[in-house]
Amino acid sequence: MTDDPTTAIRPRDRDTLLQALRTGVVPRVGQQYIQVGRANEVQALVSDINRIADGGSGVRFVIGEYGSGKTFFLNLVRSIALQQKLVTVHADLSPDRRLQATGGQARSLYAELMRNMATRAKPDGGAMSNVVERFISEALKEAQETGRTPESIIRSRLDQLTELTGGYDFAEVVAKYWQGFDTGNEQLKMDAVRWLRGEFSTRTDARAALGVRTIIDDANVYDQLKLLALFVRLAGFSGLLVCLDEMVNLYKLANSQARNSNYEQILRIINDATQGTANGLGFIMGGTPDFLMDPRRGLYSYSALQSRLAENSYATNGLVDYTGPVIRLANLSPEDFYVLLTKLRNVQAGGDPANYTITDDGIRSFMGHCATRIGDSYFRTPRNSIKGFLDLLAVLEQNPDQDWSDLIPQLEFETESNPDLEPLPEADLPDKVTEISPQVTVTEPPQDDELTSFRL
Amino acid sequence: MMNSLPSVSDDPAEIGRAFDRLDGSVKRWIWDQGWTELRDTQARAVAPILDGQLDVIISAATASGKTEAAWLPIISALAAQRSEGGEVLAGVKALYVSPLKALINDQYNRLQSLCELAGLPVNRRHGDVVGAERRALSTAPDGVLLITPESLEALFVLQGTHIPAIFASLSYVVIDEMHSFIGSERGAQLQSLLNRIELATRRRIPRIGLSATFADFTAASDFIRPNYGPEVCIIDSADTDTTDLQLQLRGYVDAGKSFDADPPPDVDEDEVHSVDKRAIAEHLFNTLRGKDNLVFANSRAAVEAYTDLLEQISVAHRVPNEFMPHHGNLSKQFREDVERRLKAGDTPTTAVCTSTLEMGIDIGSADSVAQIGAPHSVSALRQRLGRSGRRGQPSVLRIYVSEPEIDSRTNILDRLRSDLFQATAIVELMLEKWYEPPNVAGLHLSTLIQQVLSVIAQHSGAFAKQLFSALCSNGPFRHVTAEMFTQLLRDLAEHEIITQSTDGTLLPGRIGEALLNHYSFYAAFQSVEEYRLMADSRVLGTIPVDYPILVGSMMIFAGKRWRVVAIDAPSKTIQLTRAAGGKAPVFHSSGGEIADGIRQKMRHLYESDCVPAYLDHESVQLVQQGRSTYRQYRLATGQVVQAGNDCIIFPWRGSRITNTISVMLTVGGIKTGVDGLSISCHDVQLDELYAALADISAMDPPDGIELASEVPMKIFDKNDQFLGERLLSQAYAARDLDPVGATDAISLILDSMLQD
Asked: Do B54 and A423 lie within an 8 Å CB cutoff?
């Protein structure tokens, strides 16, 4: 994962990368150009991926503060997994997307995962049809080589699925896809893919469309992921990697029962992974230290999880152990951040040092400006400062006669907030009314600075 | 009509065109009803509601078609939206919030035909709606939603992430019985929920309030749209109240118990049923049996005592008992059984209930309403009266007031017959259509706590600054400053209601989570707490505490005077010891704040000679006794009476000011107790009292918060127990104390003492 700054960067990668960073989201491609440090952590995950590709299993918790780059790290690992011929699915958890629920939130997580299914050939998601297609074409290929009918080969492969929980209907649906493929029935093919993506919401609809009695719902999400792991291997991929981000949303659930039932699912996943009963299936989950360690609401509040996830007590004071289930992402240091900015400069220049728009001194001056405006968080949680830096580079690129030293002092940084709790704009009031009654009293803007940094 | 906007025309021609502006389907419905024209209120409401921007208050008497005044233009606007074509947007279009399940069920049936013509589904949601009807809202929200504030709260807590979708295309909010919300905890909850809907949908949604009439609409306008009250369009109907009212006030004399011989103190006042109670119960039995009635008593003890008596009478007559108690301490099953009996037409039932439950329960309408003991407010009496006569029958109200027998040692307050005068004053004011100005000074911190937790649950955590902005600085809790809010959050953290994650997000704490996970969280109100009275480790009884009790102050219970030795707020216990002194007045705590206007009306009644027609023979006698006492003590000019070693002050002001004077005097070193109308000052001569009052008057009005810190019992509302001392004092001062008014009243008292 080392990069040579003199390597040219493809314009397409450059633009996607910069666009993502400037809108504040984590890029899906080109992470290797801007990865800074964390070589050991990446190496640990690479060995996980290799084990999964070997038919093994794995589960990792990537734990870091807000903005420490968990999502970035997860995407990097995902892109490595795709290179290793794994199928990846990924989703952010939210109050409406959980591992375990009774109101459709688990099915909604499953559907989101399936929408984001990616393969090396289709890294941007929506790869479910390709995977099924690939399963069929593999069978057809074998049929040609062995002279058996495709039907019998597909049936014998699907037999392996029926041994797992819920496997019979899963196999039945794949068989329907083959039937649709064989008879040219596009609707049947589409319905089968829809079923596999968890998009049927009632059993009646599923039965009418495909003749199966079950659907993927809240109760069987994890079982379906296990089936899917086997299925992608039957289709010729090396395994399935499930990336779950924003696990902190489980920690934030207000209902303790809902929280605990989700932690129970996580326990099941850990047990299966460590006992080797989930073949070719890996999980990687990103969350904050609160999510892991809070004794009342975090994973540690569930004693069975605490004993399984406890960190190696010898790995302190600079000693490290990257083989445990928990990987900690340390915050970036100012030095790391400096390297990151030089890499961004490199990406922006398309990998050609002749095109650099800002000098090393300019980068240092920018960091100084950030430090005075937003404090430590400019390098600890660098999302906003990266955005600011790329904005600066964009202006410098398009206005070559401008000097960075004039622009840096003018840079402003956005602060993040939940738009749903912000006050409504005054302009929303009907104008005519405001004119009629000028005596409208609007309360003084309160002094709520103290609340911005409120600590209990 | 006041504060009207030019867009609301009073031009008769304009109003005449109102019908033409309605949608075809609504016109067809009006024809189907056989109506020949729109009533005045209905016609005047069309233009401002169709406008779709204005907040409107429609105020009219009951049965004058004011709900239709709101629904006709609303349904018309929604039908027009729908027929304009295009895709029908998902989401609720009109939200109707009502304080009562019964009103929701009633509206549900009445709206069916109108909404069917317009092609709009009607959904309802309250505690009794289950199953498929409930699910319809989350799977395919559409049309009209009828809901209680509590169910709306549940929607925010349980389906927080769906709120923007459910209300995405909301065009109108209707608030029924709006007057009952103003100034209450439940009202603050409703304001907050409506504000949160607007925050979720990111736009302002016009609100239509249906209300009883007010002399002054300022409070109502400011309630419906905080900070923008003057812009609210008010449609105040000139229609007179068409419902008939049959009214009787019955007086009784408590001659059964002798106060000469000291009764043993361990006998509860209510265990031995006195003669007057028997007489009242006999009258209730004879007049109410065979129909559905509601009997309101002012305390749980009274409810128990009367149901016990009525059961005894039923047994004696060998007839099935139709009289059932209904109050907050009874099990839910028992209460629901009574409610079912009242709703079913074939089982005549009379529920004997407390005032505190009048808004929360669903008991439909009754044939008649009775009130035992003096009511405490005009609006409460109107609310109770409104429970009878809804089916086109006249409203029937009987008030039973009992006064003690007078002998040579009876004190002045009993001689004044103050309960009877209070009841008469309230009835007179009700007939004059006077209302208490709602107390809008309250901070509603208890409800703010509920809303903080609810917002946290809705968004899975929130920052302190966001909470303050959404609820306080730009929300309905605008009297709460940033400093108070910070203190509130700290108090909550101390009680494990909230906790904070490392990034600053506030989350429910251990106790807060338990609160959120129980359905009782959704209600902002609770029945008033009653305190236990103890003397030498014996329980004397319980009382609802609605006036300040301080250590060392005097109080009256079971016909005797007591001094307060200790108060333990967490266990709600008051330790008493017998105090010397003359015979105590029989003072019944009436369980609520009494407004200045009522006390002024009482004084007016004492000075007048007229006898209202609705008084029975006995109460006429009592009125005359009261008036002669008033003259005997020359209360027309004097406001302080010396009685033995005590002085009795008559401020003739509402309970807020009376309480404040009492607290001020106690702080000034005088042992006082509030006996309803008057303040008794113990062991003090007139000149000492004059000096003390003059001292108070000479200073600037004291700080309410400092006064409040002297009051040990400040926990009134549901979540007050989680507040620290400082915030409790601030809330108490804002809601229950009026130092400026008290200082004014004291200077009048000083003047009257000088004249003497």
From this structure: no
